[in-house]
Amino acid sequence: MKEPKLYIMTANKVSGIYTITNKVTGKLYIGESLDIYRRWHDEHIPQLRKNRHYNKELQNDFNKYGEENFVFEVLERYSGNDPISTKAKILILESYFITQFGKAGISLYNAENTMVEILNGNKIPEAGNTLVCAIANVLSNYTIKECEGFAYFEKYKTIKSVLFEYVALKKESQASVIKEFEKYLEDSGNNKYYYVHAHPIYYVINGKKLMLEEYVVRDDKIRELEKLAILFSEYRKNAQKKKDLPSDKKASDKKQYDPIEDGEVRFSLLFKEFAESGILPKDYIYDKVREYMVELGIITMKDMESNGASKRVTFVTDEALDKKILRIVGRNKYGDSFTYSYVFTVEGINYMKKLFSELDEKKKLELFTYMNVA
């Protein structure tokens, strides 16, 4: 009988940090990749099914508990313009998450994957991964210009110099990348809060991971979680007050810069809430949701430049503002122009909820994520 494919690759690669969770024991494998779904489909799943996975402990538990008791999930997306520096940064972030979750007492399959082992090239030699091929060769003092068809920029003397710029075992180097990562989360609306859809349930608040075991009520953990959740909520409110501009009387009536009101939700956070409540697939792809919003005429996308850097920026259409689906609450200077912060109004939230709820499950998968055909 032919094995069914678990994942069909998306057109857009998702890079960042992912987890493989044992639903029975709660034990985690934390990994990184420039193409997470390819990593799952072409490497982890086939190797585990064939009893050839390099992580023997993960393989033994996979054999013991069965494939149905393992969940593959994206922990955090992270991308950059240059694949080499992006790879180096997500290597640091992988180590960061491993360290933080280890400190929180979470059992890990890959606790042995320290930064030292990464730098020594002792991670699994992944077939077809050009960057790993390049890293392995560079760390063997071999200067590479091309590896398995991937041409590198001439401006880099060696890939090693780029890697060590980000991956060197220096606290200040790691701190700078973590700071940049947190800014990335802030800019994308995630801040320092992560919710991982796993079993048991995991929460990460301000870099600390807490676990609520399925059948055991741990009062100390619950109190700590509630306390951190309150602190986090206050942190977000205070941070938002600093960002929100006072009402601008010179602006048009539909572009007033007011603080967020009760019931309103920031643009990117609404889709996370929809995913948690089942309105969107839990592994939805944010960029694909934005593409659908453009198709609906709710937002537009524009490439903007500042100090030689370029990024894709979201703007709300006048029609969406007129219908009060979204509201502008602040702005930031970006180069010679401005970018704006948006919130969904209560009416807008109900509008989007109705819109997404009317789509059947197949249509949601086609629009917003990879197809699960198992």
What's the short story on this structure?
The protein has 374 residues and is of the alpha+beta class. It is 42% helix and 20% strand.
Description:
With 374 residues, the protein is an alpha+beta fold. It has two domains: 197 residues, GIY-YIG endonuclease; 123 residues, no CATH class. The chain is 42% helix and 20% strand. It has 13 helices and 13 strands. It has a three-stranded antiparallel beta sheet with strand order 2-1-3, with helices on both faces. It has a three-stranded antiparallel beta sheet with strand order 6-7-8, sandwiched between helices. The chain has a three-stranded antiparallel beta sheet with strand order 9-13-12. The chain is globular, with a radius of gyration of 22 Å. The N terminus is likely disordered.
Secondary-structure element pattern, one letter each: EEHHEHHHEEHHEEEHEHHEEHEEHH
- Distance between the terminal alpha carbons, to the nearest Å? 13 Å
The major pleated sheet works out as: 3 strands, antiparallel
Number of helices in the DSSP assignment: 13
Please tell me how large the radius of gyration is: 22 Å
**What proportion strand?**
15-25%
CATH architecture of the largest domain: 3-Layer(aba) Sandwich
Parts with pLDDT < 50 across at least 5 consecutive residues: 1-11, 112-174, 189-222, 224-230, 245-257
> What is CATH's topology name of the largest domain?
GIY-YIG endonuclease
Strand order of the largest sheet: 2-1-3
**Structural class, from helix and strand content?**
alpha+beta
Q: Count the E strands.
A: 13
Task: Please name the fourth-level CATH homologous superfamily of the largest domain.
Answer: GIY-YIG endonuclease
Number of domains: 2
Overall body shape: globular
